[in-house]
Amino acid sequence: MGSELNRTPARAPDVRRLAAGALAGVLDGGRSLDRVLASLRLEGRSRAAVMDYSNSVLRHLGLLDFVLTRLLERPLRDPELRHLLYIGLYELLSETTPAYAAVNETVAAAPTRARPLVNAVLRNFQRRREALLADAQTDPVARWNHPAWWIARLKAEYPQDWQAILEASNAHPPMTLRVNRRRTTLEDYQRRLAAAGMTAVQTGECALTLERPVPVSELPGFAEGLVSVQDLGAQYAAGLLDGGDRMRVLDACAAPGGKTTHLLERHDLGLTALDLNPQRLDRVRDNLARLDLAAQVLTGDAGRPAQWWDGRPYDRILLDAPCTASGVVRRHPDARWLKRAADTTALARRQGELLEALWPLLRPGGKLLYATCSLFRAENRDVVTAFLDRHPEAAEEPLMLPSASLGQLLPDSHHDGFFYARLVKT
Ligand SMILES: C[S@@+](CC[C@H](N)C(=O)[O-])C[C@H]1O[C@@H](n2cnc3c(N)ncnc32)[C@H](O)[C@@H]1O
């Protein structure tokens, strides 16, 4: 089926069926949407349509599930049928498709025996829409489209900001570019964008945020390395590491290389880009080549330096640790439904272990920047506090970060959520 779809875009019912299957891969199979889409081997418009349906459902899953559960007399045994109904309901809710087409095409995508049920549920929704949507406002998961544990944790940790965080996490993310200062200037690149009909405002030292996101391939000079796509919050890392020319730097969790390449654009460094995942390291190599930068690229476990370290201490270490990615969920609407509360505990332990393993590699007077794209305290402030308690020779330096409290940046219309802490070896 995949190769047939590669040649011609899939028909509307096929796209719905494929999207329902993709949602089953995520919600029942526990795989990321990227992995599921890769396994479907779709291309072009078919891939874009399946991705669009899947992402739209995942962004609104709390609400869709609330509504569907109330429209069904008894639970559905077929999970793919449930996902197909989410798709039909989403179209009726969003009004992106005329209602008659949403109903007819969802019915056509269903197995013959299930068509009367699909038809009845969708028409019933049209009749009861106002009352159901009003009820949904009283249910936190339906109201905020995040799992209950996630909402409860944000509420407990950010009593003032939790609603703004959830609003931002449900919004479409901004598209921010990092201008390669080795190849051009911010003003010059802004002029190139304008000539290509794109408007962007300066939001950081080398950052331009586009008024409207565009496909990367449409960015002038992208292939030639004039610019990269990188969230503004992620762009803070390179400055916070406080590096300088000729320093020996370890980027311990480097792939796909967003921060590696930014560090190299700023200074002439002897940089080692390490990552556990060899496939993801290919993306680091591609980015280095596109931007005409050089680094030593190593596959290895940051938690086991004996396997890859040459014994020479580093002046700077960036530990951009694996985390729940709770600060960037608007870019990956599947992630919030795939994560479990217990994941934060396991990740926090791993983050502490990585810090412990890398600290001896830093020279006295050297600095380590601990970073995550998480909002949860267990992965951020708690990891750093526990480390400082264990290490009297480590001191935390204050950071110059706009709109952050104790290193924690919250997601908003300018940037994603990140955490930074800089430790110096005294
Ligand atoms: C948040 S991402 C890094 C993003 C990257 N710094 C950037 O700016 O493009 C975390 C990375 O850590 C890697 N990773 C996870 N565990 C690791 C380990 N024990 N050692 C090295 N890398 C690891 C993952 O493969 C992933 O690429």
Instruction: Work out the oligomeric state of the chains in this entry.
Output: single chain
Bound molecules: S-adenosylmethionine
Kindly give the count of domains. Answer: 3
CATH superfamily of the largest domain: Vaccinia Virus protein VP39
Shape verdict: globular
Descriptive notes:
The chain has 426 residues and is α/β, with parallel strands linked by helices. It folds into 3 domains: 2-139, N-utilizing Substance Protein B Homolog, Chain A (Orthogonal Bundle); 176-229, Alpha-Beta Plaits (2-Layer Sandwich), CATH 3.30.70; 233-425, Vaccinia Virus protein VP39 (Rossmann fold). The chain has 18 helices and 13 strands. The structure holds S-adenosylmethionine. Residues 234, 253-259, 274-277, 280, 301-303, 320, 322 line the site of S-adenosylmethionine.
